[in-house]
Fold this protein.
Amino acid sequence: MQRIKPWWGDFELAEGTAGCWTIGPARLYVEHRPHEWRIGYLLDEAAEASAVQLGLPLGQMPAQARLSRYSFQVPAAQLSLRPLLADRPVLSRPDVNLFIPPAQSIQLYVSTPLWVQVRAQGELLQEQAVVRPSDTWSGPTTRPGGLAYAASTMARTSLDDFPYSAWRAVTPLRITNRGTDMAAVERLHLPVPFLSLYQAVDGTLWTQAVELTRSGDEVLELERMGSEAPLEAGDSVLLSEPRRRADRGLLSKAFGTLFGRGGSDDGMD
Amino acid sequence: MEWIEGFDWLAALRAGIILLVGWGLAKVASLAAGRAARRYTAAQETMLVQRVVFYGVLAISVVTALQQMGFNLGVLLGAAGILTVAVGFASQTSASNLISGLFLIGERAFVVGDTIKVGNTTGEVLSIDLLSVKLRTPDNLFVRVPNETMIKAEITNLTRFPVRRLDLLLGVNYKEDMGKVQHVLQEVAERNPLCLMEPAPLFIFTGFGDSAMNLQFSVWAVRENFLELRNTIQQEIKQAFDANGIDIPYPQRVLHLADPVTVRQQT
């Protein structure tokens, strides 16, 4: 069953025509004029569906759309849209306090917002968040730490009735409490720039699975990060590579920050 | 004519060539030193290293050139010693600025490119020189602040830390429910993507004023977005207050008269 209709991929947009991509609450208009691409971006009311309309006539771009123009000497019709994970870590707060008793290992599913990258004739034209998340600061004080995006999550423990979305990717998260007391999961800080993005057969978007462990102290440490698509995604294809790569030590530091220790968000101190 | 005949043209030529080569060497050496120092030092320290190397190499070539011309350097240095005392008395301020400059560079309270506030002047640091600090104000004026002033003054570095707090001081009518006001303000902060979720916005009921209940609402922003947040969030607060019927009162006085006053209307 197709849960999400893919809005990404390679498209042909002949000169003198336009296209409209609906990505959840956002609408992306692209017009191919002589020697020029026009891209308009508009945010509508909350919606999760996606749709692609090609071969539209020119001049249908709403006046309130945020417009950019890109001029090329040699005209060509190739256009490509690609989803990307966020360019900073995402700090998700469970909307209801979540506690994990000692010696328990639980599975959570957290979704994070996506960015859309537009390329024409092989050149990167623009890249922006489908819906711009709020900024936030990760770190115990305002000096050590780094910038992140804030999100609220229901931190679901199963995929039944999971609200899959065209503009969010799901990360399976396993948290193990090896401590002797109850662990409070106040915030889940996902270093998504280090993760890849996969498309499942049903069109849903996934990142690798991430495992976190809490030992004796209060901090959740990165235990393991999957190297390929999660099992939940089934047969899947890689849509985008990680934005950044770091060795395990640096990643561990990054996660440390994310869960309230010191350090910087990009894994570099 | 005798003087011209006695003049050693060859020595003068040699001295000239030494000066020219020395100048070129000084340029190359200072550039190389700057490139090497850039890896380990801040911009103003690199600048200092470059200048020290340039003038050092140039001084050596001048001394060598003078020797070629047949000058007795011992006498020259003696004269320079006496001159230094005289110049030292005459240039106390410059010397003080020079020493202050070295302390400023060593202290690293700010670096080239930072935005600082000294007294009433706010500006971007263009250079930290041995005598003064050069600033460019937001309205594009060039300001030279002597190092002696800098070392004595209180300096605020506006760009040292990546996030800044914006304090909004508001007053609401006495009839308002403070819980509702707090809720509306929190919602405005949550909706504005430039307002950081953490550190969380701070709400303080500061007291009962003459005409309004006073409160402070403090929100955090990334340094680069500070001005934009300042504009957007105040507009959004006004809109949210209007939408929720929350009144920001004008100054007002309630008069109670000791004796009842009869008002008669005359036609």
About this structure: Chain A touches chain B through 13 residues (CB under 8 Å). The mean pLDDT of chain A is 84. The CA atoms of residues 184 and 238 of chain A lie 34 Å apart.
